Amino acid sequence: MAAGVVIAGAGQAGFQVAFSLRSRGYGGPITLIGDEPHVPYQRPPLSKGFLAGKQEVRHLHLRPSPYYATQKIDFVSGETVTGIDRASRRIQLSSGSTVPYETLVLALGARVRLLPIPGAQFDGVCYLRSLDDAIGVRSRLQSAANVVVVGGGFIGLELAAVARAAGKRVTVVEVQSRLMPRVVSPVISEYYARLHADQGVEIKLDTGPIEFAASNGKTSGVVLKDTTEIPADLVVAGIGVLPNMALAENAGLETGNGIIVDSHLRTSDPCIYAIGDCASHPDPFTGSRVRIESVQNAVDQAACVAAAICGEPKPYDEVPWFWTDQFDVKLQMAGLSAGYDHATTRGDPANRKFSVFYFRNGRLIAVDSINRPADHIAARKLLARRTPLTPLQAADESVDLKSLAERPEALR
Amino acid sequence: MPAITYVSPSGEAQTVDVPVGDSVMEGAVQNAIDGILAECGGARQCATCHVYVDEAFLDRLEPIEEPEDEMLTVTASPRKANSRLSCQIPVTKALDGLIVHLPPTQK
């Protein structure tokens, strides 16, 4: 029997490879290996609807458990891939067994960055990445009174919004001078700072925790750089993630900020692909290397690899998109704004409906939209087609972006 | 539980019971019904849970809000007057017997 496809990692990306292969009619063996005890599930709701109690575990499953047997996908849970023998094309599992592969897909995901400060081991200092993490935080949130969120990024702010909506006293501590500093412009950061403040979340910028206080082993407070202490019976740290790439490194594959892949998402071994949070790929829009942590990236890279395995290889060329829900506000992002040299606003932030258009060397590279879904969809089309747009056009509400994006001559 | 029928492009019908409060998309995903991808999980971000709602049920649905309306402009199969994102249709008792037709492609 042929060795088939082995997928290391059963998150959204790993799942999607198996799903897309079967949808395309791939008939060979598929082995999908995940280190968690659950069938593949969606992560975005863990800091949104699931945490708020609006969704249950069954709503998170990407497909129900019987799907895997029905589709002849050998789903192995609770196992870690511990090694790759590239010469004999076999992987080793934590249980000691080995599995042969014809094609190996590394969809290893990322792990949370840990707080390296005293007291981080106390009961009540949590992280939010896995379903088990979320079940724990959700349960602790019910009895918590004072919640401190370390990190003013997406996960931290989504969590803060849920906790505040549940009536908790919530403080967000961010070491940078504004919220979501790595990914949005100051105008968006300021909008969110005001939104959270209006809802009663206390935002503390330019500071971070130096240690945690506890009584009887349970967290009781967070000590900040200026030595002030905030009472806390629940601390959740959302300070970013690190790509899982030790497996690739140990196998001699090229790594950097993630596992290095080419435009077809192949690693330095042509039989091995890497996708999703763990992979660093050449951005088709700028040529520079990027590693993107998002559902869109996981799903589209998986579909690209599945197509290649089925004999239809093409370079990965999708516009990144992302969203975050905080309180009743939706931020939709298209493209990657990192490295922009000019930003212009369309609409008025005071009306709670506006978009920020980001340019680099005169070219549109990204658009962040708050409560303006039409701008977001137009942006995805403009970016996909590389339609020229000037900052003046972007800011001018009389310019119809949708028809500009759909102009036939804009097609590449 | 209300029964929802999903009809494939080739005309095969599959009827499943879906809990009240779940969406028509979740009913499809949890029963592994082919033809609904739901890549974003119901966030109105991907347009891969597009359905054509049987005309008889159209007036029982809540109206389309702007974010759904925008996503319906980027569906892989043509948008029709009865096009909806199934993630935006919560199942209610009044929708017992709902029939939705799946488009030829979602992506």
- What profile does the largest beta sheet of chain B have? 5 strands, mixed
Envelope shape of chain A = globular
- For the residues shown, what is the average pLDDT of chain A? 96
Give the distance, in angstroms, between the N- and C-terminal Cα atoms of chain B.
Answer: 31 Å
Report the order of strands and helices of chain B: EEHEHEE
Query: How helix-rich are the residues of chain B, as a percent range?
Result: 10-25%
Oligomer: heterodimer
The overall pLDDT of chain B, averaged over residues, is: 97
Stretches of chain B where pLDDT is under 50 for at least 5 consecutive residues are none
What this model shows, in words?
The complex is a heterodimer of chains A (412) and B (107). Chain A is of the alpha/beta class and 412 residues long. Helix content of chain A is 25%, strand content 30%. Chain A is built from eleven helices and 27 strands. A five-stranded parallel sheet of chain A has the order 3-2-1-7-20. In chain A, strands 9-16-10-11-12 form a five-stranded parallel sheet, covered by helices on one side. Chain A is globular, with a radius of gyration of 22 Å. The two termini of chain A are 44 Å apart. The mean pLDDT of chain A is 96. Chain B has 107 residues and is of the alpha+beta class. In chain B, 12% of the residues lie in helices and 20% in strands. Chain B contains two helices and five strands, in the order ββαβαββ. Chain B has a five-stranded mixed sheet. In chain B, strand 1 (3-7) and strand 2 (13-17) form a beta hairpin. The longest helix of chain B is centred in the N-terminal third of the chain and has 7 residues, at 24-30. The radius of gyration of chain B is 12 Å and the shape is globular. The chains are: A alpha/beta (412), B alpha+beta (107).
